[in-house]
Amino acid sequence: MTEQPVLAVEGLRKTFGDHAAVDDVSFTVPPGGGLAIVGESGSGKTTTARMLVGLERPSAGRVVVDGADRTAPPRGRTARLARARAIQMVFQDPYLSLDPRVTVADAVEEPLRLHFDLDSATRRARRDELLDRVGLGEREAAALPRRLSGGQRQRVALARALAVEPKVLVLDEATSALDVSIQAQIVELLRDLRASLGVAFVFVSHDLSLVRHVADDLLVLRRGRTVETGRAAAVLDGPRHPYTRLLLDSVPHPGWDPARIAADRRALD
Amino acid sequence: MTGTARETLLEIDDLTVRLASGAARPVLDGVALRVARGESVGLVGESGSGKSVTSRAALGLLPAGATATGTVRVAGDDVLTMSAARLRELRRREVAMVFQDPRASINPVRRIGDFVTEGLRAGGTPARAARATAEELLEAVGITDPRRALRRFPHEFSGGMLQRVMIAGALAGGPRLLLADEPTTALDVTTQAEVIAILTRLQAERGTGLLFVTHDLDLAAAVCDRIYVMYAGRIVEEQTAEGLFARPRHPYTAGLLAATPRMGSGEPPRGVPGRPVSLAENPEGCAFAARCRLAAPECAAERPALRLVDGVSVACHRAEEPIHD
Amino acid sequence: MTAVHLERRALLRRLHGGDVMQTAALIVLALIVLVAVFAPWIAPHDPNGLDLSAALGGASGDHPLGTDESGRDVLSRLIYGARTGLLGPLVVVVVSTALGAAVGVAAAWCGGWVDALLSRAMDLVFALPGLLLAIVLVAVFGPGLTAPTVAMSIAYVPYVGRLVRNVAVQEATRPYVQSYRVQGWSGWTICLRHLVPNIAPLVLAQSAMNFGYALMDLAALSFLGFGVQPPGADWGAMINNGANALLQGAAMPALAPGAAIVVAVVAFGVVGEGVADRVAKREA
Question: What CATH number matches the domain at A7-238, 3.30.70.920, 3.40.50.300, 3.90.70.10, 1.20.1250.20?
Answer without folding.
Answer: 3.40.50.300
